[in-house]
């Protein structure tokens, strides 16, 4: 049973690594750089999450768990992890501005659509940014949203929303930040469900067929985008009412990060031999 399980894990890792390695090679990340990062994560996770109850985690135990020497464990512990905190703040703030624009009645038209906003004044873009983006300036947010084609400013200075979400352009660090958050959250959900906590399973589903004609995909893309966005908007409306950053009067215990993620995929099916 254990041998079969290990083979399943190995096969799953190979499937997981293929698109990741493709992306790393495209962005000039060598095997050596990837191996160093993987080594750092092995040591960090073993140190922080696999200690014996009531005991401080030792380098010797981390060495046993990871297969690295104690000397190497000590060396890796002295290396600071790369940080994308700047991209994280930019991504979260820009996303919140768009989400608030779509949801907050102060910034919507009578029919519920996003109203064009003046830059300054009451019910303006500046007020929207002050409400949903912390201490980031309205001009900085506007410039970024214009850059990624999420908004446009007309000849009268009114700002129009063009997109339902913030997606960084090109190979920006902010776009790579999405890889580090969204994929990590999906794998964490899968790991949670593998632990077989039957009373607390996390929702994890997909629907797919492997013999579709290419002509069927445009309609599928359209359906997935419209239906998925509707669901996300409903969840966003619910969560925004409970988020204590937006509503300081909300009370409750602990501090949790929760939500849902939806993605579309398609790929060629190799010909059978």
Shape descriptor? globular
Distance between the termini: 31 Å
Indicate the low-confidence ranges by residue numbers.
none
Number of separate domains: 3
Total DSSP E strands: 2
The radius of gyration over CA amounts to 23 Å
In helices, the fraction of residues equals 40-55%
Count of helical segments? 9
Query: What fraction of residues sit in β-strands?
Result: under 5%
- Structural class, judged by helices and strands? mainly alpha
Average of the residue pLDDT scores: 89
Largest sheet: 2 strands, antiparallel
SSE topology string: HHHHHHHEEHH
Strand order of the largest sheet: 1-2
Helices, strands, pairings?
Blueprint lengths: L1 H25 L4 H19 L9 H8 L3 H8 L7 H19 L21 H8 L5 H10 L3 E3 L5 E3 L11 H22 L22 H24 L33
Helix pairs in contact: 2-3, 3-4, 5-6, 5-8, 6-7
Commentary on this structure:
The protein is an all-alpha fold. It has three domains: 1-82; 85-161, Arc Repressor Mutant, subunit A; 206-273, no CATH class. It has nine helices and two strands. A two-stranded antiparallel sheet has the order 1-2. The two termini are 31 Å apart.
Notable features of this structure?
two-stranded antiparallel sheet, 3 domains, mainly alpha, 2 strands, Arc Repressor Mutant, subunit A, 9 helices, 273 residues, globular
Report a brief summary of the structure.
The chain is an all-alpha fold.
């Amino acid at each position: 049973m254990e041998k079969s399980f290990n083979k399943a894990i190995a096969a799953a890792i190979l499937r997981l690594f293929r698109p990741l390695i493709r992306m790393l090679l495209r962005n000039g990340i060598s095997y050596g750089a990837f191996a160093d990062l993987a080594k750092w994560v092995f040591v960090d996770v073993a140190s922080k999450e696999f200690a014996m109850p009531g005991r401080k985690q030792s380098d010797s135990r981390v060495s046993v768990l990871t297969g690295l020497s104690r000397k190497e464990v000590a060396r890796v512990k002295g290396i600071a992890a790369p940080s994308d905190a700047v991209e994280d703040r930019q991504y979260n703030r820009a996303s919140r501005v768009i989400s608030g624009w779509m949801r907050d009645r102060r910034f919507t038209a009578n029919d519920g659509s996003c109203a064009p906003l003046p830059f300054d004044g009451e019910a303006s873009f500046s007020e929207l940014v002050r409400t949903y983006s912390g201490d980031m300036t309205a001009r900085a947010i506007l410039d970024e949203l214009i850059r990624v084609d999420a908004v446009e400013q007309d000849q009268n200075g009114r700002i129009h929303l063009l997109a339902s979400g913030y997606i960084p352009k090109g190979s920006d660090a902010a776009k790579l930040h999405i890889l580090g958050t969204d994929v990590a959250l999906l794998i964490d959900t899968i790991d949670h469900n593998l632990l077989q906590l039957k009373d607390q399973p996390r929702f994890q589903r997909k629907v797919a067929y492997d013999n579709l004609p290419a002509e069927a995909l445009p309609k599928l893309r359209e359906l997935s985008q419209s239906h998925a966005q509707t669901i996300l908007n409903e969840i966003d409306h619910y969560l925004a009412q409970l988020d204590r950053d937006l509503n300081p009067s909300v009370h409750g215990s602990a501090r949790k990060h929760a939500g849902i993620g939806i993605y579309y995929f398609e790929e060629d099916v190799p010909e059978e031999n």
